[in-house]
Every structure is written in C-alpha cells, then in structure tokens.
Amino acid sequence: MDYDPMDGLEGDVGPRVTVRDAALNHVDFTLSNVDLAFANSLRRVILAEVPTMAIDLVEVEANTSVLADEFIAHRLGLIPLNSKQVDDVLYTRDCDCEQYCEHCSVILTLHARCTGNENMKVYARDLVVGEPRPNEWVGNPVISDPDGLGSVICKLRQGQELRMKCIAKKGIAKEHAKWAPTSAVGFEYDPHNKLRHVDYWYEEDPIKEWPKSKNATWEEPPQEGEVFNYDAQPDKYYFEVESIGNLEPDAVIQQGIKVMQQKLAAVIQELTGDEGRNGDGYGGGLRSPDGMNGGGGGDYGMDPGTVNPYANGGNTAWGGASAYDRGGERTPYGGGATPFGATPYGQSGWAV
Hints:
Strand order of the largest sheet: 1-2-10-9
Distance between the termini: 42 Å
Shape: globular
Mean pLDDT: 79
Number of helices: 4
Number of strands: 12
Largest sheet: 4 strands, antiparallel
Radius of gyration: 24 Å
Helix content: 10-25%
Order of helices and strands: EEHEHEEEEEEHEHEE
Structural class: alpha+beta
C-alpha cells in the first residue's frame, strides 16, 4: 500500500495551536487545521496514556494507626509524584530486575510516631525519597499548598506509629487512575452548534436554557436564515488541560503527542507489512515505515525512523538516542523530521 503523507493538505498545512491562557498547572489553548478524530485522540491519550510515576508497592513494617494497611497503601498511591523526565525510568516489564531496582523505580520511606498528647497528622512531606534514582526530580512528592505540607496521609494518636517502605513505579492511567497526569481535560468544538451535533432538550427557549460557553466568542454566530451546510466539518477545538502537578501542562501535551506518534507508527507498520531491515520482523524494536521522510532505498528508503524506546535504548521516532540506554545524556526528544517538517523536540531534556 502506498501512502502520500501530504495527501489532502493544501494551503495552511499542519496543525496550529493558539495558547489563550497558561499557568503553572493549567493551560487553555485552541487547536485548528486538524480533524475531529485527531483532536479527540489527543484528548484521550492525554487522559489515559501519558506515563507518570506513582507509588505502586507498599511494604508495611509497622502500622498501629486506626487505618488498615490497604487503606493507607491506597492513599499513598494517590499522592502525586514529580514525573519530570520520566523517560529516564524504565517500565518494570522492560527491566531485567526481579521486582524493582534503581532503573525502574524510586523508593520512598515513611516513618512517623506520635509522642505528644494531641493527634498528629502525617503529610506527604514526611515521605523521604531514597537514592539512587534515575534523575534528581522523579519521585519527589508534589507539594503545592502554601504551608508546604502536601496531602494528608493519616492521623496518629499518642503511641501510634507508621513505618513503611514505598516503591514508586512508572505507569499510565489506563492501568490505574493514580498514574493520571491530569485532573481534567476540557474539550469543546462548534460552540454555536452550527453543525447540529447536539440536540438540546429544552422546555421553552433553548437559547435561554442553554447559555453559550466562553468559547463562543471565538467564532462567528450563525446568521438568521443561514442555509445549513451538510458538508461542513469542525476545524477548531478548544482544550483546557489541568495538571495535578506531577508534570507541567506543556509536558503533558508533548508526551501525549509522543504517544500518538508511537501508536501511528505501529499502525502504519502493520499496514505496510514491512518487516524491518534487521531480519527479525521489527528490527530490534517497533519501527515506523521507511521513506516517510523521503530517504532512499526500496520503495520508501530508510527513515531515521523509530525504535521502540523500551527496546534497551537506540533511536526513537524523534531521532535522538533514547534515555533508556541508561546513559542519561539524552531523552527521546532528540529531534527529527515528520511529514509536516521538523518536530519541536530538537532539544535535549525538558524546557524549564
């Protein structure tokens, strides 16, 4: 099967992003020049498939509080942990260790004992991050309140004690919600309902009973007596991404794009039936089809391509060396070309 990566793209080529508002844990932007399937795929990937760190195993050494071990373990798992440069951490399934090690996990310890007459609260700040770990950020509890305390884990009375060893691992929200990078992702298109994708239920007047969202000011309202266009398609989408603090909003979106590129590379690989250049079906990892960037050789030529970043290092869909070679000097954002030109990931590491 032959594919033309530029087929159907005329005039203003490529997605366009307009940032309307940005804060430390929140970003509001519009995405245009893409179809509805692409925009909704990005939303779903951001919600469920961006990797983060979360406490996954808890070894209880002492717990004399009124809460059961499982209850506290569940609360520990929901504490957001810093996931900056999480690509430096291996998935447990890709690591050679038996259960956990410094390459695929971060160890946190919790030891609290109440010796006073009043109840004592145990906070996320009481978690102590152990060394070594993949980098200096990953695994730190996210503390954003003015007092610098973090989430409450439990309360202890006089003489009660907590002593636990927590193992944080890398995962995605599709497996468990504790790995979710966002608390909410707002998504809207066609705020005036010109396309009639929504049927409003109303008693008397739909205009009064269904007020317009703030996004309606960004588009022209329908004119009275305007003829309905059956061929019209949405082309502008409004996103509101709210991070829980483990990743910055721009990093969440960049990681979402990265995951989408990996998935699309896998689909095109299956459609083309190309079995790689190394004779093992996938050439040492999941590869995108050759020739996407116009290289020479065969029907498509050899593309800088992708090797699955979980295949013990090597190149990725974005050009550079993977951080999984445990050298740590570079992340999967090593730059590279796509059908729409150079990717924005040409620099090494996250932008601060």
